[in-house]
Amino acid sequence: MSSVMQPAPPTGSAAETPPTASRAARRGAKLPLWVGIGWIAGLALVALLADVLPIAGYDEVVGAPMQGPQLTGEPLGTDAIGRSVLSRIVYGARASMAVGLTAAVLGLVVGGFLGLLAGYFRGVVEATIDILAEVVQAFPPLLFLIALAAALRPSLASLTLALAALIIPSFARMTKGSVVAQSSREFVLAARAMGASHWRIMFREILPNALMSIVAFSVVVMALLIVIEGSLSFLGFGMPMPYPSWGGMVAEAKDRIASHPSLTFIPAFFLFMTVYALNTVGDHLRRRFDVEQSQL
Amino acid sequence: MLRQVGSRLLRLVPVLFLITLLTTAMVDLMPGSPALAMLGDQATPEQVARLNEQLGLDRPFHVRYWDWLTAALGGDLGTSLRMGLPVTTAIAQRFPVTLEIAVLSVVLALLVAVPLALVAGARADGRLDRTATALSSALLSLPGFAAAVLLIYLLAVRARLFPVGGWVPFTEDPIGNLRSAVLPALSLALMEAAVYFRLLRGDVIRTLQEKFVLSARARGLPPGYVLFRHVLRPSLFSLTTVAGLSMGRLLGGAVIVESLFALPGIGFLAIQSVPFQDVPAIQGIVVVVAVTYVLVNIAVDVGYSVIDPRIRAR
Amino acid sequence: MNPTTTTDPRPGPEQAAGPDRPPPLLHVDDLRCHLPTRRGLLRAVDGVTLTLERGQTLGIAGESGSGKSMLVRTIMGIAPRAARVSGEVRFDGVDLRRLPAREARRYLGRHIAMVFQDPSSALNPVVRIERHLTEGPRHHLGLSRAAAREKAVQLLEQVGIPEPRKRLRQYPHQLSGGMRQRVTIAMALACDPALLIADESTTALDVTVQKQILDLLQRIQRDRDMAVIMVSHDLGVLAGRTDRIAVMYGGQVVEEAPTPTLFAHHRHRYTAALLEAIPDTARPRHSALHTIPGAPPDPVALGPGCRFAPRCAAALPRCSTDVPHLEPAGDDGHRYACFAPTGLRERP
């Protein structure tokens, strides 16, 4: 439950490449960003087109088990049952990204709305939402997810809902911080003086300003959700059978790591690259919109 | 300040109430029942019903919850359905393991991150800084279990330096104890170190822009002295908060690492209890973890005032 | 280095160090400090030549952005790490810029000391006053902790802080602004420097305290026969407390003269404008304050010609194309760089 709930902290705008750095250094600093964007785009494309790609199904037995990567056969080898590692990676990507994206969006919508309410109305509303957030956040996350997943029959939907429920407090806190900062600014006072209704102020004035930093935050949150989902699948409580998951693949292969390390490292590598890409892009977006009040 | 602590402690009450309520409700929602889990698939429905009655599991929800709550307030967290031990005993046995791993992880992470961040921040954008920052970005993206698996492969399987799993209690064999703690602590420490490094490096760079650092340089003080005696302490504020919070989290038990290395800690206990629907154990663990987490949070807030003399005065 | 941007092509008579006279305490020769930034090269200091003898007080005047703070930082060798510095900084004959870092550091704080503007940020909030005062002497003079503490007490007494022993144990936030400024002065004096640089050291204080601090500085200077460089945007502060004044604009010295001469016979248009801008209680009430129109030049995009020309009411056509150089006026060391000086006809 430890390192799981920990998205990358922002590096802070002043602390990145100082303005007096050479042009080459600044260009070098942009490289990870392009790699990140490229990876995400490529992965998303492959995941979307999975069904039409010339790869085996994720549950098909295509050859002898435990074969290493080959040039002529399976490019990434086969797993313990003889299934194509490449296919499982591709479909695992689809599953993980779908779950992560949906959960993030759900969390954003619900959490963002709650945060908007809390930050705008303050008082009792804020206190209630704060306590609810603290309840969810004080709960050991993995335990929460495992229990929730066990309680609601394991399915993609229940997994997504559980992940969303977990991340709603973070979104709420983050949005609240942003909204509180906005509410004291003059354009809000002006709108109120003109007699605008609460809803109008919240949605037309405050939300658009807070939106960009929320969106930047959600990219990083997606990275976190993919890690959590991977961890859950690793423990056996995550992606329901028969869907493949990178975390699950690592779990399956870890006992044979001495003889067939590639079976473990390939899914681990994909996990790592995806999280890295999302973190890098999200970090860049966060710095652009200067989120100092990220509350997790 | 006392008032602040008091109000935070007061908030603990509704939070704990809701958490325990939620836990009980969730376990209730799980398909089957603890009795079924205990007796196995072969049991007849009558046997299951009888065991349910014996365990008091057939009573209505609020009755069960109330009984548990009143007992818990008196310090009795019930008896584990799976192990037959009092839950408090089971947790007490396992807490030192989790504690040792948590402390070791944070200490290791700090030992690595603090000097690196100081030096990297002092020469921002230099070679060391760029390497360390890239490395920290990479480590941040490595999920705990992947790091653990990697470490097991490199250090346990290939290099045979550390055991693949298992736990040796300190009282039995101090060296063996440390050896069995290193890999788990290291798996956790890697990501923590990356977080600490990023945070401290940013703060060091910010502090270096302060006038008092320029003033120290203008007085001819050596750069090393300036770094350690003037820059370090003002830069530590965010880091101490985060490290404290990390400790709070880790004390909740690193579920993945504990189960991977088969360490008898709280996290592993939790994982074992869930499929077994060991209600008392689950409730007890959740309470202990939540209380620890909130208390550590409060302690961190209080500790902040110790570090920053400006707050102390108020 | 581009010779056409140098404002002082000939060394004056004071800089020559012959066998019969000791070198001046400080001689700055064509000092430049350029900072590469995203928008271009920032020429913060662009060819400054100055001399200072022992016991003298030199005032450096100019608006914010004129480069005066960067000048003193460059003299001390604590310009930003990315800065490109050229020129000489000779202290007692030794070119500080040519020394290896460790050697140069032996001068800082020991022979040349600086008092910073805004004492709230010049003092480390988590460090007690005692350490602020003792770390310099302990490092430079090798004093023991006890000896350094005694010295710290004496220093606090000299700068007029009551109950010095109690103050040593305190943190900066527990002192008032005026006391903090006195502490920064005490820090600068800790190792008995020969040269004290006071960078806008009273700007952050209110007027009554300002006078106290300036009087204190003057008294200390007389007692110790210290040389002082006083940097300020306020010519009023510099009047009566300096021997000479150098006026800076756009990173360069545009006029330099003994103080009485500067006030009475200034030539450069910018100097004139600065003096005009000093509120004068002798003027009729409610008369508008004189301001200098426009804003300081963008140090990244300096145009050709005189840098003050865009704001100068008396600018001639050639002011925008040719660069004026520092030329002497009279024989008391008065120099200025202007094609259309006040009080004279246009120069050929």
Can you give me a brief rundown of this structure?
The complex is a heterotrimer of chains A (296), B (314) and C (348). By secondary structure, chain A is an all-alpha fold. Chain A has helices at 23-48, 85-121, 123-138, 141-151, 156-183, 186-193, 198-235, 246-254, 261-288.
Verbal overview:
The complex is a heterotrimer of chains A (about 300), B (about 325) and C (about 350). The two termini of chain A are about 15 Å apart. Chain A has a single domain, classed as MetI-like fold, CATH 1.10.3720. Chain A has helices at about 25-50, 85-120, 125-140, 140-150, 155-185, 185-195, 200-235, 245-255, 260-290. In chain A, about 70% of the residues lie in helices and about 0% in strands. Chain B has 15 helices and no strands. The mean pLDDT of chain B is about 80. Helices cover about 30% and strands about 20% of the residues of chain C. Chain C has helices spanning about 70-75, 100-105, 120, 130-140, 145-160, 165-170, 175-190, 205-225, 235-240, 260-265, 270-275, and strands at about 25-35, 40-50, 55-60, 85-90, 95, 110-115, 195-200, 225-230, 245-250, 250-260, 325-330, 335. In chain C, helix 4 (about 130-140) crosses helix 5 (about 145-160) and helix 7 runs parallel beside helix 8. With about 350 residues, chain C is of the alpha/beta class. Chain C is globular. Chain C contains 11 helices and 12 strands. The interface between B and C is medium-sized, with 22 and 30 residues.
Question: What does the average pLDDT of chain B come to?
Answer: 82
How many helices of chain B? The count is 15
Could you tell me the CATH topology label of chain A. MetI-like fold
Query: What is the CA-CA span between the terminal residues of chain B?
Result: 8 Å
What is the residue-mean pLDDT of chain A, rounded to a whole number? 78
Taken from the alpha-carbon principal axes, the silhouette of chain A is elongated
CATH architecture of chain A: Orthogonal Bundle
Question: Using only CA atoms, what is the Rg of chain B?
Answer: 24 Å
> What would you call the structural class of chain A?
mainly alpha
Radius of gyration of chain A: 22 Å
How do the SSEs of chain A run, as a string of H and E?
HHHHHHHHH
What would you call the structural class of chain B? mainly alpha
